[in-house]
Amino acid sequence: MEFENLISNRLGGSDFYKTNYYKFEKYSNLKRKWLDNHPNETLLDFGIGEGDEMPPSFVLEKLDKEIYKYENRIYADNGIDFLKQIAAIHLKEIYNLEIKNPLTMINHVMGAKSALTLVPLAFVSDLDIVITTTPGYEVLANMASWLHGKIYQVPLYQENNYLPDLDAIPEEIYQKTKIFIINYPNNPTGAIATKSFYKKLVTLALKYNFIIVNDNTYGVFTYKTPPLSILSIPDAFKCAIEIHSFSKMFNMTGMRIGFIVGNETGIDIIKKVKDNVDSGQYIPIQLAACEAILNEKKYLPRLKDKYYKRMKTISKILNSSGLKVTMSNGTFYLYIKVPNKFKTADEFTRFLLDNCGIFVMPWDEVEPHIRLSMTFYCKTTEKLFYQELENRLKRIM
To answer: What are phi and psi of 69, to 5 degrees?
Structure first.
């Protein structure tokens, strides 16, 4: 049997392998090949963006305690009420956001990625338009296209502070739009949204009857302004759903836990779809996530300070090496324009990997840029790591 001839037409049929593309998997394979070919060398890895620390001790201790309780072995389905109530505390502490009824306006998800697949399953019909920003995280758009939605990409440019130009989108596109997916603080650019941008987008959503989805995975990581939720904008609860994750802010990546918050009806629809997709995250992991929030005031400031100091140091090294680097206002990424002598970000990425063992992520979708994550792992000390980076860059730049 030739399975490739049986692939769903929604996925592209026999063209699936030609059209299916997930950036992180492609370049992770490239990194693995380098490691196989250089077993005695150290890779300076600025790539995927997974935290370099273990989850905090209070999370692990809570998990260890809860896994031995008989009542925690069962299906979680749409989650425990306690997590919804604790998530509301997080939204109040971090965003000054009041949630009237956490039990109906919040629901856990098995990571932000899972939520980004559930939303189009719930709302996208054939030929519905999904507006997405590029460069960006492609999961929701990919799922929507498999559901026969039409993807309309809006480019992000530095001159517009990496915010989509809402006025440049034609009215006939807005009229057919079902979902407008944004991601602020933004991966990969590090940009943050403003209240005025959110207000304008909410006004458009209410006028043209589309759903705003804000992937707020990096929400806590802002450095010059307080974290901002789109749901703090008047009337946003009428049209917006926001996705939050524990992966980045508590180094809980592998635990796959997050939550969605928004309009009661919208959340209820997603919950009913979710019932048919998964049976909920393991209850001890949900309880560990609750413990994370209960300790966030003492934990998050240190983590933010760590990433911000790393960004400042790495920016200084890169600028001294001839790369033009602007500090990000949010996330833990540096988004850097590729030198003119390289035609593409892919070319520059391979050049850095092959010539000096530095791994970055490329973005060629709008203008050639590379992204460096500040979650790098240091085998020795950060000081020696920085010296090694500087020495390697001197050889090539």
So the answer is: -90, 125
pLDDT in tens, 364-391: 999 999 999 999 999 889 999 999 999 9
CA distance 304 to 94: 13
State the sign of the Cα–Cα–Cα–Cα dihedral 338, 342, 347, 349: negative
The whole-number pLDDT of residue 344 equals 97
Cα separation of the two ends of the chain = 52
The pLDDT tens digits for 158-184 are: 999 999 999 999 999 999 999 999 999
The conformation of residue 110, written as its DSSP 8-state character, comes to S
CATH class of 57-296: alpha beta
State residue 26's pLDDT score.
81
Q: How far apart are CA 353 and CA 30, in angstroms?
A: 9
Rounded-to-integer distance, Cα 362 and Cα 242, Å: 27
C-alpha span between 200 and 212 (Å, rounded): 12
Domain coordinates in residue numbering, the chain: 22-54+298-396, 57-296
pLDDT one-digit tens code per residue, 338-354: 999 999 999 999 999 99
Q: Which CATH number applies to 22-54+298-396?
A: 3.90.1150.10
